[in-house]
Amino acid sequence: MVFFYQFLLGLICSAFVAGSAFILQWLSLSGALAAALSGTIIIALGPWFSIFLVGFFFASSGIINHLKKKNSADDLVIKGARREAIQVLANLSPSLLALIGYASFNNENYLWAFIVGIASCTADTWGSEIGILSKKAPRNLLTGKKLPAGLSGGVSLLGTIASFAGSGGIVLLLAICLWLSGQPLSLTALIWVLLLGFSGSIIDSLLGATIQVRYQCTVCHQFTEQKSHHQQPTKKVHGYALITNEAVNFLSNLAIVGIACFFPN
């Protein structure tokens, strides 16, 4: 019966938050539904502070996306202002799997893996959304060659700092929540969350530079993640067609959550 009430509370709270995000144009309708489902699972299965971590991820992402200036990279990448369901699930599903594992086996390693997954999502989103504003062109993580701003696989100093800050934001909020609930604070565990969350964004950039699909416009010869540019079909020049930005997000989060599962709590 307790689980039923937790589930019901999760559904009501998540529906309200997701609906608000939809009204604020942070989420599409499908994105809002996916967020509501994810939030319901998190509140039903996770500790009380779990939803605040996920809420921080969504709220900070929406605010940053709203405040950032219009950039010429907008027509080169497939990242709309509103998050779709596939984007929400690509980011959250590995963390949700870890949380289900925590609820099923009562193993705190899975709880820490869930937290690391949220830190990784936040780090990657902050790095992408803020890094695109860098006045210096990002460089390919492996080759060092310059890339158009916003294209996956590129890193910049501003984006790297933003990624670290995003992971740090989750760690700070986690520390506050643990302190408020009277739970012991493990500095070692917090540092691991910080570093692993940041590492998730690095893995994302690494996959973006190696296996993510990339196209080239036949008109302006600009690299892009879109299948059409200047109303003309683009040519695939790199990576695998199925490995889109969402696939890279999922794989990088899955990898870092999987790694975190094996770290001692």
UniProtKB/TrEMBL annotation:
Annotated membrane topology: Multi-pass membrane protein
Q: Where in the cell is it found?
A: Membrane
Record keywords: Membrane, Transmembrane, Transmembrane helix
| GO CC, alphabetical | membrane
Looking up PANTHER family in the UniProt record yields: TRANSMEMBRANE PROTEIN 19
- Transcription as a keyword? no
Principal localisation: membrane
Protein name stated in the entry: TIGR00297 family protein
Q: Does the keyword Membrane apply?
A: yes
User: What family does the entry list?
Assistant: Belongs to the TMEM19 family.
Question: Which residue ranges traverse the bilayer?
Answer: 7-27, 33-64, 85-105, 111-134, 155-181, 187-207
